[in-house]
Design goal:
Number of strands of chain B: 2
Strand order of the largest sheet of chain A: 1-2
Oligomer: heterodimer
Distance between the termini of chain A: 28 Å
Radius of gyration of chain B: 33 Å
Shape of chain A: flat
Helix content of chain B: over 70%
Strand content of chain A: 5-15%
Largest interface: A-B, 49 and 46 residues
Structural class of chain B: mainly alpha
Shape of chain B: elongated
Chain lengths: 144, 772
């Protein structure tokens, strides 16, 4: 899709999508959002970029990122579940700490956040991998 | 303590892995470390457990579901020591037996087999026990089928796997039934509440299923037929499998169940009937057999029958002479198998018909002496541990004052005389053959490893020590403090037990002499035929079912899945007692808003049917998906709506990418009949789903699903968005499973595209070559 407007819009939307994904990730435990949705938003950003700048560019840019993010994501998700066992809790019991921030806000950090980060990485990794492979492959028609 | 126990179980498995990678000539030495190490670590427990102490050692598990407890008691440690001891003998023997011709896979499978048996002995949790049980099934399959390039070996492996595997399934069902009803899978807890368990009539089914597992594993009648097939295994494996592992696993399980079910009304009749029937029937089969290994195999099933019957009686008698019987059988049977391995090497055959013409007495005196002691022990003659074991068994049959004594006594005498007869048959056949010696076919003496005779020699020492100093072995080593019904002595005064023994010796001699005359009789179809029929039948059945269930077309798979859903949905509605009026619910203000998505979805569905092009259909599918999004928004589920919007978008793009590689749809290739079937299935699914949705949507909020989750989430201050709290806190393991599936799917895409790329390149190259 070789369109100037689309490319420029993508340039603007891409960072916004990333920020939005982070926002969804952070608020996920209390408000609509969460790791799965954040991962999907990030994937959509990748899709946009692929459609705007072509598969080859996207492939060059993400090639070294996608599959590692798959593995690292799985490791983080699994690891975050196993860490509580160090203190003798059953696996996947997440505890949380709250800090008061200046201005009356509160920052809540919880083991679930780490788990959600793992989920995000796996989702962007797997959808991205599938996309890069499929867009990148030449159009080959099945003999009919 | 916990660490040592875990080390005992893990060591063989670790060495099994190491044996796979070290140079082949070291593999045997590495393998020696496992039984030696296990024996060294376990033997320290013996004085404690022999004094009667039992300890339960928890090593983990899932709380509220099951625990993974280990158990340190006399039976368990006895089996660990036995497995390690015979395992040590087996490994050393196998090093001599195979010489340079062993394989890493053999050592590895043997060690894993050993480790599984040890784990089985130490498990208190039935879950853990079942896992190790199945590992013995799998590793024995590998070991029996070691010579997988030979048809007989493969068939033997498949047969034993089918029988013991089916038994394993029965065992699992039994464990689930008993454990599920009792609320625990721990043998120690089960034994503590045995009154409650025995009061429940369902325990009979559970017990029968578990015994089915034990009896198939121990090759008891009528499942004895898999044992001769398993003789395709290399001889050291047969020795181990018959003396300390695999078939002994069934005996071990019976011993483990005894404290729980010993007083059940099924226990005594089932175990004594099956055990004594096996004792007699397999004794008869052993007398008929001409292959020495097959003969010994049937003899194993027979003696295990004796032990099974012993456990049957022990249920009421509370005797603990099990160690005597098991040690006796393990030592003489392993030694005899080892000796047959030596004979096979030396003469090139195991066939008694051929061996009779070779007169091994004049060729190898040491072997003859060892064979002599082994067969004496097998026949249960005095001066061996075998004698003690048999006397002890007669004692429990006679002394326990059980009803139906006569048939049991007859079975015992007949079985024992058969043992005497085939023991004579082996010794006289091999060593005192009446014919002119013929030329040797086997490996020349200087190339035979001397370990092939040393190892059985050591094992038989135990027999002789037990026979000559029974008091020391039984009362001080095996079970100190135990009152032995028959005083362990070489000789006791003429009493009923001695009379039975003498009668069985005489009958055995007559049987042996008579057999020489009668063996020209035509044979009945042997158990081999039964085994082949059964395994072929099972495989035919499996092939037929695979053809039916896995025909390879998506329409059928989808139909099965969807119809299951329909059935489950209808069941669910019916089970909940919902009438049609309940389903429909009142017509409220929400209903008009609901018409918007309904219209969207229905229109999209109609277009989906009518449109021809794939991509157009895909877009209609997405429209229907966004219709669902509207439904979620109406019911104020922003999380679901957000997720659905994004998944629809991603799915649309992924599918577009796939579809652009497919041709346009041609005319519908389905026959009218198929169209009707598919249409009916679709209509059913649609109606069920519509009914379920309608029902769910028109129910009052007081019955809303997930109230418990809301409450928990609030009380534990987990988070305010309960949907995500469920995903990350309550169901984190589910979520983990899902992302693993997603990751695997992505890798699958990569692999498939690579394979396609490679196939295309090959095609192009072929085209170029044709062109040039």
């Amino acid at each position: 899709m070789n369109s100037f407007i689309f490319r420029e819009v993508t340039r603007a939307v891409y960072p916004a999508a990333v920020v939005f994904a982070l926002y969804l990730l952070m608020r996920g435990h209390d408000q609509p959002g969460g790791g799965f949705v954040a991962g999907l938003v990030l994937s959509m950003a990748v899709v946009l970029e692929m459609l705007a700048f072509g598969a080859e560019a996207a492939r060059r840019r993400y090639r070294l990122m996608l599959r590692p993010s798959l593995v690292i994501g799985l490791a983080i998700a699994l690891g975050s579940g196993l860490v509580p066992m160090i203190w003798g809790h059953p696996p996947f019991t997440f505890s949380q700490v709250k800090y008061s921030l200046p201005g009356g806000n509160e920052l809540k950090l919880s083991g679930t956040l780490a788990f959600d980060v793992g989920v995000v990485l796996v989702i962007i990794g797997s959808i991205g991998t599938a996309l890069v492979v499929m867009i990148g492959s030449k159009r080959t028609r099945v003999a009919s | 303590m916990t660490e040592t126990l875990i080390a005992i179980i893990v060591l063989p498995f670790c060495l099994a892995l190491i044996a796979l990678v070290v140079p082949l000539r070291w593999a045997g030495a590495v393998a020696l470390l496992a039984p030696a190490g296990v024996f060294g670590m376990a033997v320290r427990y013996w004085p404690v457990v022999a004094a009667g102490s039992t300890r339960i050692v928890p090593i983990g598990g899932l709380p509220d579901l099951f625990s993974l407890n280990l158990r340190v008691d006399q039976l368990g440690i006895f089996f660990v020591l036995l497995t390690a001891g015979i395992g040590l003998a087996t490994v050393q023997y196998a090093r001599g037996y195979f010489g340079e011709k062993s394989s890493r896979l053999f050592w590895s499978a043997l060690l894993a087999f050993m480790g599984a048996m040890i784990g089985l002995a130490l498990a208190d949790s039935l879950i853990l026990l079942f896992v190790f049980w199945e590992v013995t099934t799998i590793t024995s399959f590998l070991l029996i089928g070691m010579h997988f390039d030979e048809e007989g070996s493969r068939q033997g492996a498949v047969q034993s796997f089918l029988v013991t595997g089916a038994g394993g399934l029965a065992l699992l069902a039994g464990i689930a039934l008993i454990g599920g009803r009792a609320g625990t899978f721990d043998l120690s807890t089960l034994a503590a509440q045995k009154e409650t368990i025995l009061a429940d009539p369902m325990h009979r089914i559970g017990l029968a299923l578990m015994l089915l597992g034990a009896l198939t594993k121990s090759a008891q009648f009528p499942f004895h037929f898999w044992l001769p097939g398993a003789m395709a295994a290399p001889t050291p494996v047969s020795a181990f499998l018959h003396s300390a592992a695999m078939v002994k696993a069934g005996i071990l399980l019976i011993g483990r169940l005894l404290p729980v079910f010993g007083e059940s009304e099924l226990w005594l009749p089932v175990l004594t009937t099956v055990g004594l029937a096996s004792y007699v029937i397999t004794g008869w089969l052993a007398l008929r057999a001409t292959d020495l290994k097959e003969l010994l195999a049937f003899s194993t099933a027979g003696f295990l029958g004796l032990i099974t019957a012993f456990y049957g009686y022990a249920g009421r008698d509370g005797s603990s002479a099990e160690f005597l019987h098991i040690l006796n059988h393990a030592t003489y049977k392993a030694a005899l198998f080892f000796l047959v391995g030596w004979l096979d090497k030396a003469s090139g055959t195991r066939d008694l018909g051929l061996l009779e013409s070779q007169r091994w007495w004049s060729r190898s005196r040491p072997a003859a002496v060892l064979f002599g002691i082994g067969t004496l022990a097998m026949a249960g003659l005095p001066m061996t541990l075998g004698f003690m074991s048999k006397e002890e068994f007669y004692e429990i049959v006679m002394g326990g004052k059980f009803e139906r004594l006569t048939p049991a006594l007859v079975a015992v005498i007949v079985g024992s005389s058969l043992m005497v007869a085939y023991s004579l048959k082996i010794f006289i056949g091999v060593f005192l053959g009446s014919h002119v010696p013929s030329a040797e076919q086997g490996v020349p003496p200087e190339k035979r490893s001397s370990w092939l005779l040393i190892v059985p020699g050591i094992l038989l020492t135990v027999q002789v020590v037990g026979g000559l100093a029974p008091h020391w072995l039984l009362s001080e080593v095996l079970s100190p403090g135990h009152e032995w019904p028959a005083s362990p002595a070489i000789w006791h005064y003429v009493d009923a037990l001695l009379v039975i023994s003498l009668v069985s010796y005489a009958a055995g001699l007559v049987l042996f002499l008579g057999w020489h005359v009668a063996r020209q009789m035509p044979g009945v179809p042997g158990p081999k035929v039964a085994a082949e029929t059964l395994s072929n039948g099972t495989i035919t059945l499996a092939e037929w079912w695979t053809r039916v269930a896995q025909e390879g077309g998506h329409p059928r798979y989808l139909s099965v899945i969807l119809l299951t859903f329909v059935a489950a949905g209808i069941l669910g509605l019916g089970y909940g007692g919902a009438s049609l009026a309940d389903l429909v619910g009142p017509w409220g203000p929400d209903s008009f808003v609901g018409l918007i998505p309904a219209l969207m979805i229905v229109t999209a569905a109609v277009f989906l049917l009518v449109l021809r092009r794939r991509i157009a259909k895909l877009i209609m599918l997405t429209v229907a998906g966004y219709g669902t999004v509207v439904v979620y928004m109406i019911y104020q589920a922003p999380d679901l709506a957000l997720t659905q919007i994004l998944t629809e978008a991603v799915a649309l793009i992924l599918l577009l990418l796939i579809f652009r590689q497919l041709p346009d749809l041609g005319p519908d290739p389905r026959s009218n009949r198929q169209k009707v079937v598919h249409g009916t299935v679709s209509a059913l699914v649609g109606l069920t789903l519509a009914g379920l949705t309608w029902g769910a949507a028109s129910h009052s909020p007081s019955e809303r699903a997930g109230a418990e989750h809301l409450r928990l989430s609030e009380s534990q201050k987990l988070g305010e968005n309960v949907v995500n709290v469920i995903l990350t806190d309550f169901r984190a393991v589910d979520t983990l499973g899902e992302i693993v599936v997603l990751a695997l799917a992505a890798l699958g895409v990569v692999v498939l595209y690579r394979a396609k790329g490679r196939a295309n390149r090959i095609k192009e190259r072929a085209a170029q070559e044709r062109g040039s």
